[in-house]
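Anyone opening a protein record will find just a pair of labelled lines. A complete record is shown below as an example.
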Amino acid sequence: MVDSEWDPSRGGGEIWRAMGYRVGDGSCRCHGSKADFSGVFLPFQSHFRRAWPNPLQYNQQLGGKTHLDWRLFTLVPGRSAIELPPGFGVPIPSDAALDYVTMSLNLNERDQVVNVRMRTKVHTIAADQPGAPTKGLFRRALYVLQPHGVSAKMGPGCMAKAGIHMGAGCAELSKVNMSGEVSAEKPGDGLMNHWIVPPGHHIYTTEITPQLNLPFDTTIHYATMHVHPFARGMELRDLTTGATIFRLNSQDWPDRVGVAYVEEFKSIEGIPIQRDHRYELSAEYDNPLKVETDAMAILYLYFLEKDLT
């Protein structure tokens, strides 16, 4: 993992619209394998050596009209770039300090050391500049969770913990667990975000209404997901109406271990989401091996900030 500080006030910018990466080898000849890529995270700065503002303080700085969490963008295997719909962006204070954190996994070349260099581009624009987005978005990361008995072999290593850098895990701190209670040590009630998948076809479901914690009725304008190899897709359902909101599919590399492509949803009009409805998230895995494998399933949603438009 590489950790470097990034202060956007040095380069200007209050609206964050897009983020993308490419992977190269240690000499920066950009033909390195994307199968080595695990994640790029852009969170607010949270080094324990200094008391940086937290998202709640940034929301207050923006007049209480935003609902920022710790991370702005997360790039994952199979999704090398995120570009929000035209006219939309994630508003942050121009003096907010950010961190840039990368992760890589050597899933295939296990008998040798692989040097990997990641290059990331982030598109920002000042809010008062021509062409700046006029509609703000806020982000939620929603997890499929499984009982501790299923995931006991994995341990809680992929969940950020209190006192640790917010970008240091493949999953960030969640404001609520399955009981709706604030928790920094676990997703909730013995449930884990990293579990074991036996051979065969499996569908895992979690009601994510407490995780959503919506401040008002709103609309989804962008979505993508993070899954592990042998995932087939994720589905978001409205339990109140019984309707499927959307499904995102996943494809693996045909000749090596790794996720090659995950779908995204992008819309200017958006999909309505109701604060008083209940919602369920499911993940489909099809493990063709004769041994167990590990799994995660995270849905990243970007909602309209109604008070900013």
In short: Residues 55-61 form the longest helix (7 residues). The CA atoms of residues 150 and 195 lie 6 Å apart. Residues 2-308 form one domain. Confidence is low (pLDDT under 50) at residues 1-13, 21-32, 173-187.
